[in-house]
């Protein structure tokens, strides 16, 4: 009976050692894959040219401001990613399907021109964050609003698209 008990304990010990061995082999494979993925990400980051990306964002902003001048809300909405969203002040978040209406309302409010001044662009080949200031003008070059913004850009199928767009006024509240 005592011999059976010793055999059970020995067997249990072998099972635990075997399980630990199997798990450690699996973890080294996972660790190797993680190291490989990390190495691939580092290579992508080394190949990523932030200045080139910034130039692309500047080009997209130029197209965006031109579409404001044209009053083209459909064109404005086309700059957003498939899961893009605007977060305007004093409003709920506006998802892709509501962006044409959002920009149409800006145009109907009399916005004739949008001036953007990018202050900073940071990020990677997948996502960029742009911070800056804006000015909105109406008829006769009358300033309607000025403020600041943050745009998160997403690389969608090789093109930079707006993933998140938040902006708010810097002007005092009108009474």
Task: List strands and helices in order, with pairings.
Elements: H1 2-47, H2 50-70, H3 73-77, E1 80-87, E2 94-95, H4 99-108, E3 113-123, E4 127-137, E5 143-156, E6 159-169
Parallel strand pairs: 1-6
Antiparallel strand pairs: 1-2, 3-4, 4-5, 5-6
Summary?
The chain is of the alpha+beta class and 175 residues long. It has helices at residues 2-47, 50-70, 73-77, 99-108, and strands spanning 80-87, 94-95, 113-123, 127-137, 143-156, 159-169. The protein contains 4 helices and 6 strands; from the N terminus they run αααββαββββ.
Describe this structure in words.
By secondary structure, this protein is of the alpha+beta class. The protein folds into 2 domains: 1-47; 50-169, Nuclear Transport Factor 2, Chain: A. The protein is built from 4 helices and 6 strands; from the N terminus they run αααββαββββ. The protein has helices at 2-47, 50-70, 73-77, 99-108, and strands spanning 80-87, 94-95, 113-123, 127-137, 143-156, 159-169. It has a 6-stranded mixed beta sheet, with helices on one face. A hairpin with a 5-residue loop joins strand 4 (127-137) and strand 5. The longest helix has 46 residues, at 2-47.
Number of helices: 4
Mean pLDDT: 83
What is the string of SSEs from the N terminus onward? HHHEEHEEEE
Classification by helices and strands: alpha+beta
Radius of gyration: 27 Å
* Main β sheet profile: 6 strands, mixed
Q: Do you know the CATH architecture of the largest domain?
A: Roll
Strand arrangement across the biggest beta sheet: 2-1-6-5-4-3
- Give unreliable regions as ranges: 3-31
**Fraction in helix:** 40-55%
What is the CATH level 1 assignment of the largest domain?
Alpha Beta
Instruction: Give the domain tally.
Output: 2
